[in-house]
Amino acid sequence: MKFRKLLFLLLVMSLWGGTMMFADSAAQKVRVIVNGSELDDAGMFMDGKSFITVRQIANTLQALVVWDEGSKKVTVYKPNVHMFLFQQDNTIFGNVVKGNRITFKVFAQIDNLLTSGTAVKVSIFDPSGTEKVIQSENKSIDKDNFWYRTEDLAYSFDAAGKYTIRFFMKMTGDDEWKLLSEKTITAKSS
């Protein structure tokens, strides 16, 4: 009786192990690198094709994803967002000297927006990743293009490194901020 149980267990383990090896050879994980940065979740390679999620691609491209449950359809929207940084005297800037305090505003031009939104936000992230919201506003967005300008912000670039200005939007029916564009400011030691 014990011999039969042992034989049965051995048979089940052999079948399970063979199935797992087949599954592993049928679908292999692959590394996905976009613009020099590796995506967190690996893609899959199966039957000579690579697969990654739509959400991964949309986040990497700073695009919006809309899921329609009724039609089981995914739509990806990639609006054009151009940001310009103006100092108080209306000169454009992109790099600063570490330790400087600069008063500036962000001007964003958005076009090819083929979905609607309910709010916008512009933030600056310091080299350690800490966010400071420059301006956030509930705003009904129902046209394919608009301009957005923040109020003046006095900001100290205390550390050397990369500071990132990011433009976010909330889509209609969604409470999550979606990143649409970013611009980098480099603070250098003098």
UniProtKB/TrEMBL annotation:
This is Copper amine oxidase-like N-terminal domain-containing protein. Residues 34-112 form the Copper amine oxidase-like N-terminal domain. Residues 1-23 form the signal peptide. Keywords: Signal. It holds the Pfam family Cu_amine_oxidN1. InterPro entries: Cu_amine_oxidase-like_N, Mao_N_sf. It comes from Paenibacillus nasutitermitis.
